[in-house]
Amino acid sequence: MTEHFDTIVIGAGQAGLSIGYYLSKLGRQFVILEQAANITPTWRGRWDSFTLVLPNWTYQLPDHGYDGDDPDGFMDRDELVTRLEQFTNSFKPEIRFGSQVIAVKNGANGGNFRVATEGSSYSAANVVVAAGTFQTPRIPQFSNNLAGDITQLHTSEYQNPESIPEGAVLVVGTGQSGCQIAEELYLSGRKVYLCVGGANRVPRRYRGKDIIYWLEKINFFDQTADSLSSSKERFNAHPFVTGKDGGRSLNLHQFAKDGVILLGHMKDAQGYQVQFVPDLKDNLQKVDQFVVELEQNIDKLIDEQSLAADEAPRREELMNGYDAEVIEELDLKAEKINTIIWATGYKFDFSWVDFPIFDQDGYPIQNRGVSEFPGLYFLGLHFLYKRRSGLLWGVGEDAAHVANAIAARNS
C-alpha cells in the first residue's frame, strides 16, 4: 500500500528539521524519512571532545537561535545535540526512523512523485532532498592494500585517544577534523604523523575580535555559488581552527615545533609501506599565504570603514614546517604506526534521485534549492546558495525559501 503525503522530506539533519519547522508553521502535511535511528546522526557521531568552531551566536535555526549565556563560546557535541532535540520537540514533526530512501521517481503520467524505502512506498506532491553532502566517508581505494593489523578509522569513527591502539598515529588530512584530532592526539602524548592537504587556516582571533566576526564583515559566508570560478570550489574545505578550551588557533608550524611529523599528500600504500607526494612545503606555503591575504583584507576593511579594532599585531609567523624533512615513503611497522585516521572528508551519491538534474560532479542543478522539476527541492548542501548554506548559521534561510516555494506552488 502506498501512503500519500503533501511533502516528503528526506533526512532528519539540521536541513530536514528546518524545512519541517516551516512546513509545520504553514500547516502543510509532511513526513520526514531518516535512515538512522535518531535525528542529526552526523553531529551525534562526532568525537568525544568535539566542539563547534563557529561561535554559539551563529547557531541560528528557525525561531530557535542561541539563547545561552555564552554567545562567544563554542558549544560541545552534547549541548548541540540537546539543542537540536529541543528544536525538534518544539514542533514535533512526524519522523520515520530506519527509513533509507532508495528511489525517488516521477509518478505515473507526470503526477505525484514516487518515493521508495526498503519496506515502504510513498507518493507526494513535493519532495525535499535534505540528505546533505556528508553521506559516506571518503577513503582512498588503496587503503584496502594496507596490512590487516593496521587499525583504520575515518574521523566519523574516532572517539578519543584511549579508544585506539597504543603506538604512533598517521592522520591523513588537515581539514578541521584532521587538525583537531591530530592536536588532541599529540597533546595526549601520542607520536603523530600528519599528511598536509589543501585546507586553509585562520587565526582564532585577530585585532581583538574572533575571526568569524571579521569573516562576516568581509562577506566571506555570504559568497554565492554563482561567484565561484569553478563548480568544484564548492567542495573546498572550510579553513581550520578550533573551539576547544574556549577557542584557539591551529597552526601546522606549531604542530611541527611540538614534534608532529608533517608529510605531503598520501598517494599509495601496500602492506606497511606508504608513499607520499613531495608537496608538503608547497601546501604549507599556500596555507600561509591565505592567512596573509586574509589579514590584509581585514586591515583594509578596518581602515576604509574606520572600524573599532586593536592595533595590527606584529607578524612573527612560525616557520618550523619548512624545516621538516620531505618524506616520500614510510614503513608503518618501523615507525610503530598502528593506527591510520582518515580525515579525508565525505562523498555523496544522489543516484537514487531518478531525474536528469545533476552536473558532472553529481551535484544537483538547482536555484537556491528549487530544481527545474516542479515539486523537487534540495536543501542543506555546501554552497546550495551561499557559503553558509550547509551550516547551522545559514540552513534556516534556505529552508524558508524552499518552504515558500512549496506554498506558492500548491496554493
What's a quick, concise take on this entry?
The chain is α/β, with parallel strands linked by helices.
Structure, described:
Strands 1, 2, 5, 6, 7, 8 and 21 form a 7-stranded mixed β-sheet that branches. The protein has a 5-stranded parallel β-sheet with strand order 10-19-11-12-15. The protein is globular, with a radius of gyration of 23 Å. Helix 1 (14-25) packs across helix 8 (395-409). 23% of the residues lie in helices and 21% in strands. Strand 11 (168-172), helix 4 and strand 12 form a beta-alpha-beta unit. The chain folds into 2 domains: 2-135 and 348-409, FAD/NAD(P)-binding domain; 139-342, no CATH class. The chain has 411 residues and is an alpha/beta fold. It has helices spanning 14-25, 41-44, 77-89, 176-187, 211-217, 252-257, 280-305, 395-409, and strands spanning 2-10, 30-34, 60-61, 64-65, 95-97, 101-105, 113-117, 121-129, 136-137, 151-154, 168-172, 192-195, 205-206, 209-210, 261-263, 266-270, 273-276, 329-331, 337-342, 346-347, 376-378.
**Domain unit count:** 2
Write down how many β-strands occur, each being a DSSP E stretch of 2 or more residues.
21
> CA-to-CA gap between the ends?
28 Å
Determine the mean pLDDT: 95
How many DSSP H or I helices?
8
User: Strand count, sense and closure of the main sheet?
Assistant: 7 strands, mixed
Percentage of residues in strands: 15-25%
User: Ranges with pLDDT <50 over ≥5 residues?
Assistant: none
Structural class call reads alpha/beta
Rg from C-alpha positions?
Answer: 23 Å
Global morphology: globular
Following the backbone from N to C, one meets helices and strands in this order, namely EHEHEEHEEEEEEEHEEEHHEEEHEEEEH
**What is the share of helical residues?**
10-25%
